[in-house]
Amino acid sequence: MPANPQLRIVVKEALADVADAAAAHVRAAAADAIASRGRFRIALAGGSTPRALYPRLVEGVDWTRATVFFGDERAVGPTDPQSNYRMARETLLGPARVPDANVVRWRAEDPNLDAAARDYERALTAGAAAPWLDLALLGLGPDGHTASLFPGTSALAEEGVLAAAVDVPQMGQRRLTLTYPALCGARDVCFLVAGRDKASALGAVVDGNRLPAARIAHRAGPVTIFCDREAASALQPERMDGAGLRPA
Ligand code: 6PG
Of 95-104, 112-121, 217-226, 235-244, where does mean pLDDT reach its minimum? Predict the structure, then answer.
């Protein structure tokens, strides 16, 4: 996989510092999008790592001029503890009083997830032109997945749609996810990665191994990986920007 010349890796000592750096990046992206195009279209990451970031975005973004999407969702309702929407509502959407009309939630409780995915694609593209997202926030799993693009799943082959339902046997779940065309097509992509359990996957992603997250990290366009020292411990020092921290 050809290396992405616009891939930056920002290493910080601790997750709080990673979140501070990522929050500054998001605020700048929002200000630029609103100044340039009048609107900021962001896809939020799920999982647990963004819990450190989202409270830092309550201030400093004009959420009245933003549209909030989700990179993926578990096939659960909006109040389920597993729900990425619930996590974002608790940590960002509620505290920032983001208008409900500005939040595009996956209808993940729908028994027909294929229909829910088609509806989400319609919502993503309604009244907009490509690129559909100004910023895609993503996490990284220990197996190199991102959003719900898991190794060995059908979503990896979805090239003609922007949103898909997918069975993820390794998680024992059904999920909904934006696909490579949607995520690789964002104006800007940021990964938020922390913890030693991510070090091997992050090393493989940066090296361009054939992992789902690697395909997005090496897409043509700006990508910034914000990570802590533990997650960066398998990276070659010369690949790091920012703190210039050496692997522990
Ligand atoms: C999800 C996410 C998923 C997540 C990674 C990392 O719905 O779980 O979309 O891709 O970002 O699994 O999760 P953690 O931040 O919890 O390690």
Answer: 235-244
18 within ligand 1 shell (Cβ under 6 A): no
Strands 188-193, 241-242: parallel, antiparallel or unpaired by DSSP? unpaired
Cβ–ligand 1 distance for 64 under 6 Å, the answer no
Pocket probe mutation, ligand 1, options 145, 168, 216, max atoms within 8 Å of Cβ = 145
In what order do the strands lie in the sheet containing 223-228?
66-70, 40-44, 135-138, 188-193, 223-228, 7-12, 241-242
Q: Is the pLDDT of residue 244 over 90?
A: no
Nearest 5°: the CA angle 68, 104, 25 is: 10
Separation in Å, CA 35 to CA 38, 62, 66, 131, 237: 6, 11, 12, 17, 36
75 lines ligand 1 (CB under 6 A): no
Q: In whole angstroms, what separates CA 178 from the centre of its chain?
A: 10
Look at the block and give the residue holding tokens 């990570």. Answer: 227
pTM more than 0.85: yes
pLDDT on residue 243: 44
Place 246 in a pLDDT band, splitting at 50, 70 and 90. Answer: very low
Q: Answer yes or no: are the C-beta atoms of 226 and 157 closer than 8 Å.
A: no
146 lines ligand 1 (CB under 6 A): yes
Q: What percent of the chain has pLDDT over 90?
A: 91
Amino acid at site 30: A
CA of 214 to the centre of ligand 1 (A): 15
